[in-house]
Specification:
globular; 3-stranded parallel sheet; mainly alpha; 2 domains; Rossmann fold; 8 helices; DNA polymerase, domain 1
Length: about 180
C-alpha cells in the first residue's frame, strides 16, 4: 500500500530567489588566475599567478570562515564588504612576501572583476520563463554595487535584489534571511 505524506496539493511559491555567482553567473578559479596575472603585470609582483592566488586565497577563506558566528550571531565581527576584506587579504600577502604593493588597487581590481563575470548560457531563458508566473529575486553575499553592475551589463531585471552588504550580515545567518521579510 502506498504511503501518502500529505493529502493536499502544495501551494505554488509566490517568489523564487536565486544566488548570483555559480548559480546564474560563472565564478571560476581560472577567471581569478587571469585576474591575478593582470595584478602581477600591473604591479610587477614577484610571484606566479598560481602562487599569488594560493597565498591570497588562504586569507580569503579565513575571512569567510570567520565573518559570521552562526552559533552566536551577536558575537560576529563587524561586517566587512568583500572589497574591504579582499583588500586586507592583499595587504597580508604583500606583507608576507615583503612587497610594497598597492593592495587597495588589487582589492579594487578584484571587485571590478566580480561585476564582469560571464553569464551561464541558460540563465536569461530560465529567468524569463519563471518571471511569467513568479516574482523572481536575487540574494547574494556579494557587494551590492557588483551585483547591480553585473545585472545591468546583461540587462537582467529582478523583482527584488538583496545583498549581504545591504543586510550587513552574510548568508547563511538567519539575520540575512530576516532582512528579506
Amino acid at each position: 500500500m502506498p504511503i501518502t505524506l500529505h493529502s493536499e496539493i502544495p501551494n505554488k511559491p509566490k517568489a523564487i530567489g536565486f544566488d548570483c555567482y555559480k548559480t546564474l553567473f560563472s565564478n571560476s578559479e581560472d577567471g581569478w588566475i587571469e585576474l591575478f596575472k593582470e595584478i602581477i603585470f600591473k604591479q610587477k609582483i614577484p610571484l606566479s599567478p598560481e602562487n599569488f592566488w594560493k597565498k591570497w586565497k588562504n586569507y580569503e577563506v579565513d575571512f569567510r570562515k570567520n565573518r559570521t558566528d552562526l552559533g552566536r550571531p551577536s558575537n560576529s565581527p563587524k561586517f566587512k564588504t568583500y572589497q574591504e576584506a579582499w583588500t586586507i587579504c592583499f595587504e597580508k600577502v604583500f606583507d608576507d612576501i615583503n612587497f610594497n604593493g598597492d593592495f587597495v588597487e588589487a582589492g579594487f581590481m578584484s571587485s571590478e572583476h566580480m561585476s564582469q563575470k560571464p553569464i551561464f548560457e541558460e540563465t536569461v531563458e530560465v529567468l524569463e520563463k519563471l518571471s511569467k508566473n513568479y516574482k523572481i529575486g536575487l540574494f547574494s553575499n556579494a557587494d551590492h554595487d557588483w551585483i547591480i553592475k553585473l545585472l545591468e551589463s546583461q540587462n537582467i531585471k529582478f523583482d527584488f535584489i538583496a545583498s549581504s552588504e545591504l543586510a550587513q550580515t552574510y548568508k547563511p545567518s538567519l539575520k540575512a534571511f530576516e532582512f528579506l521579510a
